[in-house]
Amino acid sequence: MDTSQSLGDIKNRVDSYAQKFESLTSELGRVIVGQDAIVKQTLLALIAGGHVLLEGVPGLGKTLLMRTLGETMDLRFARVQFTPDLMPADIVGTNVIIEGDSGEKLFRFQSGPVFTNLLLADEINRATPKTQSALLEAMQERQVTVGGATHKLDGVFFVLATQNPIEMEGTYPLPEAQLDRFIFKLVINAPSREGLIEVLRRTTTESTPHASRVLSPEELLDMQKLAREVIIAPHVEGLAVDLVLRTHPSTPGAPDSINKYVRFGASPRGAQAIVLTAKARALLAGRFNVSTSDIIEGAKPALRHRIILNFEGEADGIATDALLDDVVESVSDLSTRVARS
Predict the structure, then answer these.
(1) Are 21 and 43 in contact (CB under 8 A)?
(2) Which runs of E-coded beta strand occur in 100-229?
(3) Domain end residue (candidates: 177, 212, 247)
(4) Most buried by CB count within 10 Å: which residue of 112, 113, 257, 300?
């Protein structure tokens, strides 16, 4: 195949990707009201192959979002309500004793709700750390180990975990190792007046809107594969690295606010999250290469849950988003300089 044919094939694939993404957002918009940014970021995380931690008060449509995602792509959906008495086996499954044809006793694995395509871990911080950690292997390795046997999670696997930022009584903060497995942390806000009116119109009548299938699981996997193939230039890749490094105190170029309020900065997974979602975002703009703006746009959702404040930062109630604003500002001169080089 000659160069022109190769470029034409790439353009067709990019155009198809953008059309499919637009179809998904439009269909989700028929059901989900006033949360366009959350829908877009969730889809970017899904295409990047990661998982999302969604923070918001009850009643803002988090469960509806996941169920509707399943409808638009014909994916299996499961929901687990996390409670203090929930056990790891309630999530991943367990071995049960059965009687064989000859009367002998055998162990058979009974899979848990984690064996699905879309898993909603509702109010994940209400379960104990032992139960929270049951998701670690599944989220990172796409497998679970029970009784010494490993069971693979095939196909699409996406976890959306929610937590309520208001009710802190009887909750267990997610450990840093668990938070690091989420590619994005998104904050969902209450709808506007117009949005709330539209919610009432859609949910208090005889007919409730439902989404139609617009994508197959195989097409979603193709979109995930294409996103991984997007090109990123060394200087753009370096910008993602600088963003992560400058969240660490005492790092050259780190803002004063980071040095004052941060105990530990973001892990290397933060840089991976920025780059992977930037690739998925670049395709939406019709580009097969990542720009500096793609990197900057993904900084907050990819890093806000990976920064650990020190005592002074906790006492002063410092928001990690404000710290990330300083980090982005500190690298803005770098992005301008490398763009000219």
Answers:
(1) yes
(2) 105-111, 118-122, 143-146, 149-152, 158-163, 184-187
(3) 212
(4) 112
Q: How is the beta sheet containing 118-122 ordered, strand by strand?
A: 77-81, 118-122, 158-163, 52-55, 184-187
For residue 95, give the H/E element and its range: strand 93-99
pLDDT digits (tens, 9 = 90+) for 117-140: 999 999 998 999 888 888 888 998
Domain membership flag for residue 15: no
Alpha helices in 97-233 (DSSP H): 129-132, 136-141, 176-179, 193-203, 217-229
Query: How far is it, in rounded angstroms, from Cα 58 to Cα 13?
Result: 39
Query: Do 136 and 262 belong together in one domain?
Result: no
Q: At 81, phi and psi to the nearest 5?
A: -85, 110
CA distance 28 to 45: 16
Q: Which domain holds residue 308?
A: 230-341
pLDDT in tens, 292-326: 999 999 999 999 999 999 999 999 999 999 999 99
279 within some domain = yes
> Tokens for 79?
């929901």
Q: Output the DSSP codes for 253-316.
A: T--HHHHHHEEE---HHHHHHHHHHHHHHHHHTT-SB--HHHHHHTHHHHHTTS-EE-HHHHHT
Q: Are residues 90 and 183 in the same domain?
A: yes
